[in-house]
Write a structure and sequence with these properties.
251 residues, 28% strand, 35% helix, 8-stranded parallel β-barrel, alpha/beta, TIM Barrel
Amino acid sequence: MLAKRIIPCLDIKDGRTVKGVNFVDLRDAGDPVELAEIYSREGADELVFLDISATEQKRKTLADLVYRVAEKVNIPFTVGGGISSVEDVDILLQNGADKVSINSSAVKNPQLINDLVAKFGSQCIVVAIDAKRVGEKWVVHLVGGKVPTELDLFEWAKEVEQRGAGEILFTSMDNDGTKDGFANEALAQLSTELNIPIIASGGAGNMQHFCDTFTQGKADAALAASVFHFKEIGIGELKQDLKRNGIAVRI
């Protein structure tokens, strides 16, 4: 059995790590370089670094910050925000990123997924999907959750897989920052219908939530931010708890 992964997420705005609730009410959570170094040392399996204002402000991810973070960590490192071309990815990989995450740009130009996979390989390309329930449907949203689309979460996820993406990072906007647990029903459906790894995001509040998303949600990895940033959960103790519950993790 493949080990389940624990992934701290560093949402970056104006060079600082921030965290909000339901994608709004952002508060400062510290220096991203310092946090990345701490998480790497504490046993995180990977890091995700998202410049959350890059798409909205039509600017590129801060490549120099990526470089400084990459200098301090020895674990895989995914970068997203404002990526819309092969050239953008090339710059990030040269600055130390192991993978890239695309979101709005993939919806606007699905061929971008194919192009990036052809150039860099599927293992390098993560497609992030932000969605929230609208009636009975999970609707994909863009630009940091501000712009709804006509896309259904599950149909879009299947297309993303068909175009060659290596992983999907699914954030439930309804659960984001609430600390009420992950959207395990939707995650389980994604994991059942797709063959690529699914990273769960949005809703972590305690160690049981991580256990639940691996067992009930069938997620391959769990991503969280505030519970790690504000030291509510330690990565080492979380992994020991998961191990006690029979979940395969790297200690």
